Amino acid sequence: MKGSRVAGMQLMLEDIRAEVAYTRSMIGRDELSEAVLVAMSKVPRDEFVPNDLKAAAFDNGPLPIGHGQTISQPYIVALMSDLLALHPGQTVLEIGTGSGYQTAVLSRLCQTVYSVELVPLLADAAARRLADLGYDNVHLRQGNGYEGWPEHAPYDGIIVTAAAPYIPEALVDQLKPDGRLVIPVGAPHGRQELMVVTRDRHGRTQTENILGVAFVPLVDARGAAEQGV
Ligand code: SAH
Asked: Can you tell me the distance from the alpha carbon of 99 to that of 181, in angstroms, rounded to the nearest whole number?
């Protein structure tokens, strides 16, 4: 790794640790799993941000990636990855590929990552970037994430990286028994709650509220039609 990247990465990891400690009473943990922190340390965030924002690549904040979308804040990426509690042999579905950054982090935490992105240009750019960087256990598709990706279901975990007004039933249906759905739920551009939905062996679900968050909205079917889906 380049020297500036190593230094930036170190600061980013320190910021994540500090924010985890600061929010410990809300998120119910003092620290994130070592596996998540190692995965975060191995993914070069500077490769996922636009050229003119490289200097801010390791700041602990979201950054614009075009098309009105953002690459999520590193703390949130780490926290959501931790909440999924993935194991090496498992399969995860991500809704909202965006830059592909969260996809890359997940690819280091489990066996196979499927990811769905609505905006064709973002989906294409992420596919190229992830292939160039050698993430070969990820499968991407352009489409409307409200429907999940039924062909590869069920999943051990599903993560939604845009805010939904409600918990989409199709996503819960695509979880394995004991699978976990990590999703921000709430009004678009308003306050949202990061939730973990767990599905037990009998198909019963349990929902846990984790933390107030601010995500770009998960675009609905009408918006999806405008993107040709
Ligand atoms: N995980 C991304 C975050 C991107 S922001 C990253 O690390 O960069 C959320 C993404 O969700 C945007 O790229 C947006 O285009 C996408 N999105 C919004 N509505 C969607 C939908 N209905 N289906 C799939 N993707 C959607």
From this structure: 21
